[in-house]
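Side project, low priority. Logging it here so it doesn't get lost.
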Amino acid sequence: METDTPRRQPTLDEVAARAGVSRSAASRVLNKAPHVSRATRDAVERAIKELGYLPNRTARALATQQTGIVALAIFHDEPELFADPFFGQVIVGVSSALEDTELHLLLCLASAGRGRSRLTSLLNTRGVDGIMLMALRGDDPLTHIVRQVGLPAVYGGRPLHFEPQWYVDSDNLGGGRLATEHLIGLGRTRIVTITGELNLGAGAARYRGYREAMIMAGLTPYGMVEGDFTEASGAAAMTRLLDDHPDLDAVFAASDNMAAGALRVLREAGRSVPADVAVVGFDDLGIAERTDPPLTTVHQSIQSLGKEMTRVLIELIAGRETASLILPTRLVLRDSA
């Protein structure tokens, strides 16, 4: 009885012969090298398709000194972070941008312990072709390692203590200002804010936007409590603000999750929203449509943040010119303000 033998994979030499080009020309097409004529590229790609050629990733990695892997490092300790809709949408954006490439994504939690140790080792051994870094707090020493190693690196948001060469950020300052100006336009004057973590670029910028809008309107910033972008921290901050400023008439919460916590506390305290207290959030996550009442918020395109970070990194890895980017924000009006 005959048995099927595995089909032999075609070689690069056979691809070159089918295309009528040299082996080196076929290799340049596979490695997406510049200065290859359209005719040569088309002939090689047609031969690859006809022969069913699959490149040897190990050989290509040795030849190009690339791993085919990019890292997304999020500076946070808890795996539950990936259940946060914000980071979920970032990952969707990154994955969609990688879909038409041969690059694979490695996710890293990098705040402390083994996660930080593994990431440091990965950087020092150049175990990835490039890295995207998000949620950096303060002057994190890993940023210095990234710069020393010289890997292509793109920052999601601008760190507080230095201006990276390549970053993608949302207009957090403008968004914080926009939210506060809307509340002022409603005639509210005793406006408090629940900030995000102030050692994060986004948290600091949104708070600065609030302060600028208040001062430009001739108002004194009325009250501030720092949260950590979670619903629980928003509830705790709102409780404290009501204790300290019982006559407050508006709240700018620097995330929708914190705004949801604030709305719950206001309802439990018997404050009507927006009649007694107007509330504006930030992000425009799905939760903003499900709060009671639905939340007026500042929209940022979170998936675009992930896509654009990845696009910039791909350009850097390919050795092409690219530039940093700030994505616009806009106000979405619902019933809370």
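Brief comment: The CA atoms of residues 175 and 194 lie 14 Å apart.
Revisit when time allows.
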